[in-house]
Structure formats: structure tokens, C-alpha cells
């Protein structure tokens, strides 16, 4: 059985991720063979068509990752200022009111990191009522003082129109400045804008360069995105082995999309030695993290006993769970109907328990 890779279409910054729908087509049943005893043959893969997330790239669509917003800023304090360390320490412990009071004193004294902290607290309603206008004001003061985290955070506010009117031109300039100063989230989101081709002219090579910068800095979303580029040859030469290494790195950081892709690569032996038990284990992890695609793939391997012992009750449980998220499969529905009533009832009960509807 060969599992399909995930193919994504570019979506605008700050939009929700939308994975392409894929279908695994099972082999036809051997005439006269009992359904329970029939040995599964390798499955072929077809891709269902579905509406792509808007907007598409201005050029012909290229496979690309499903972007996730990376707007949260955690201001890092300078190591040589114990007073600012106290601000950051209070923030890390969830003592937001204390962090606010300490940061206010430091910000009034001209400390840009404290200004960024105030912007973060106002933006996320931490210890203070949410006020995007005040957040933007503090971010701007910090950005004008050269703080890269503030530049990125202010860019995200300008892009979304929070705390003031939408200003994509200013947002791009701020992102570019932050990226030059080494802010990985700025490089990642700027890469998405170059990939999308609406706010900026589409330039997949520049997008790949920025993704590499963010991936090298350890940003899991960028590692996953760049892996997709290397897998498909988007803006870079095709390199399955490098794609897998990036997927592995992002998987270790709990990026669910990367976990699914890495599991598929291990299952198929694409760019890495085949290891179906490890792949199934990773599919289980991604399924428990809520990935409907992983749940669908896990259902198939459990029902067919490929790479793992056959467990139809558990497999159909995951099929029913995936179906509630729009990843249903008519063939699996038919097999579920043909399942003995007692096993079908167990699978349905397990799915309801997982979904919290029992």
C-alpha cells in the first residue's frame, strides 16, 4: 500500500490552513473471497478535486504549504539587564499584570524590549484589556528603536487592519526589515506573500530563500514549507532526501502537517529508508493531534493490516472520526456496513467517545 503525499495550494497570510482532499482507492475484492480473510493488495492513489483556498497564486498553481499564522511575539530580554529579565520572567510564569507594571517602568525609560512586551500584552489581553491601538503604538516605538520582534508584530497588525487601517505596503516594509535582522517569523510570512503573488509579485525563488532563512533558524512551519518546495521542485531543485530531513525536523517540533508527510515518506520509503511501523506510529500521533488526513490514512492501514496488525474496530473508529472532519470515504463506508454488527457497534462507540458525543 502506498500512501499519498499532501499537496497544498498557496493561501493568503492570516488565512486558515486548508489541506487538499486526497482519496485512497482500495483494490477490488477478489470474487468469492470472504471479506474478513482477503489479503489486501497495494492501493493506488487518486486525488479528488475540491475548491482551492482563495486566493490562488497569480501564475499557474504550484504545490505549496498551507500557511499558518505566526503572529505571536515573545520578546526576548537582553541578557545584560536584570530588570528586563524580571519582566520576561513574569511573562513566562503567566504573571501578566506584574509583567505589565514592570514593563511600563522600563518602557518609559526608553527600553525597546519592554515596549515590545507592552505591545504583546495589549495585543493579547494579558493582564490588561485588549487594545490594538495601544499595542500598535508600543510596537511602533519599539520598531523605531530597531526591535525586530516589534517590527514583525506591527506588520501583522497593519496587514490585518487591527489597531489602525490596513496598510499592506507598510506591513511588507516592516516584515522585510525584521527579516533582514533575523526574525524567522517575518521571513516565513514574507515568503508566503512572495508565493501568493498578490500583495507582492510572485517570486518562488525569493520565497524559497526566505523559507530557508526561517527554516535554518528552526521555525517548524518554514521547515515544513521548504520541505514541500524541495519535494515538488518549487523555486529549488527537487531533492527528496533534503525534503525528508526538513520534514523530520519539523515533526520533532510537533508540526502536525510535517508529521503526516514524514510518516507517508517513511511508509513509502521516499527519500528515506522504508519503515512502516515507525510511519504508523507517527500517523497515530498526528491522528491524536486532530489531523483528519492522518486519521484517514491510519484507518486504511489498520483496516488492511499493512505495516501494523489488522484492527478493524480501531481502523473504522478513525474512519468515522475523519469523516466528521470532511475526510470521509464511500468505500470505507461500505466496508463498515459489511462489518459484523457487534464490531460495527464497537467502532461507532469508540468514535463517539473520541469525539465526545457519547
Per-chain topology:
Elements: E1 22-25, E2 44-47, H1 82-92, H2 96-108, H3 112-124, H4 132-144, H5 148-160, H6 168-180, H7 184-196, H8 204-216, H9 220-232, H10 240-252, H11 256-268, H12 276-288, H13 292-304, H14 312-324, H15 330-338, H16 341-355
Helix pairs in contact: 1-2, 2-3, 3-4, 4-5, 5-6, 6-7, 7-8, 8-9, 9-10, 10-11, 11-12, 12-13, 13-14, 14-16
What does this structure look like?
Residues 6-71 have low confidence and may be disordered. The protein contains 16 helices and 2 strands. The two termini are 33 Å apart. It has a two-stranded antiparallel ribbon with strand order 1-2. The radius of gyration is 24 Å and the shape is globular. Helices cover 57% and strands 2% of the residues. The protein is mainly alpha-helical and 358 residues long. Helix 3 packs antiparallel against helix 4 (132-144), helix 5 (148-160) packs antiparallel against helix 6 (168-180) and helix 6 crosses helix 7. The chain has helices spanning 82-92, 96-108, 112-124, 132-144, 148-160, 168-180, 184-196, 204-216, 220-232, 240-252, 256-268, 276-288, 292-304, 312-324, 330-338, 341-355; strands at residues 22-25, 44-47. Among the domains are: 82-181, Alpha Horseshoe (Serine Threonine Protein Phosphatase 5, Tetratricopeptide repeat); 294-358, no CATH class.
